[in-house]
Amino acid sequence: MRANQIRFPAGMALLTATLLYSLSCQSDDEIKRQRYITEGILVYKNNCANCHQTDGKGLAALYPPLAGSDYLAKKDSVICLIRYGQQGPIVVNGKRYNRPMPAQPQLSDLEIAELVTYIYNEWGNETKVTDVKEVKPVLEACRR
Ligand code: HEC
User: Fold this and answer.
1) Is residue 112 within 8 Å of residue 79, measured between CB atoms?
2) CA 86 to CA 76: how far, in whole Å?
3) Coiled-coil regions in this chain (predicted)?
């Protein structure tokens, strides 16, 4: 009798916790994705938007777009280009650009991962994280 009285509220608490968890509908992966994107937006605004613009559409013939860019198909190149910059020329969506993009050595591996996650979720049709663990070996391979 006494044991029952104790077990009942514990069972209710567990049931309530399970219910709340399933209602919140946010997996750990989704929470991580949102965190990367939120940070990525800030890194983008502070380091990239000047040239590529907040909407990612670039600026005339000077700065190529990231939104809808066919260059995004080469993610490893994008990761390396962010850290080490790029000496022109480059072709994006059939248009030729020919200006140097400055290297961004101030960005950490994690910031590059957050940035790439933001860019690909916002403008590259992805709905997943590009984890810093994926970015590290790519940066290692193109290290200068
Ligand atoms: C000073 C202006 C400038 C800044 C700041 C800058 N870029 Fe660029 N970016 C360029 C130019 C110019 C090119 C084209 C380079 C060429 O002609 O070879 C380019 C090319 C690119 C490309 C490949 C082409 C494309 O449009 O898909 C990507 C991706 C890119 N930049 C991402 C970034 C990211 C991310 C940042 C922020 C960390 C950044 N850039 C900061 C000027 C800039």
Assistant:
1) yes
2) 14
3) none
Dump pLDDT digits (tens) for 33-72. 999 999 999 999 999 999 999 999 999 999 999 999 999 9
Which residue from 44, 101, 114 has its CB within 8 A of the most atoms of ligand 1, so it is best to mutate? 101
Q: Model pTM greater than 0.85?
A: yes
In the chain, how many domains are there?
1
CB 88 within 8 A of CB 20: no
Length of the chain: 144
Residue 133: inside a domain, yes or no? yes
CA of 107 to the centre of ligand 1 (A): 14
Q: Which CATH number goes with the domain that contains 132?
A: 1.10.760.10
In a domain, 50, yes or no: yes
Instruction: Return the pLDDT at 22.
Output: 63
Is residue 11 within 6 Å of ligand 1 at its C-beta?
A: no
Q: Cα 12 from chain centroid?
A: 40
Within-domain flag for 13? no
Q: How far is the CA of 52 from the centre of ligand 1 (A)?
A: 7
In a domain, 3, yes or no: no
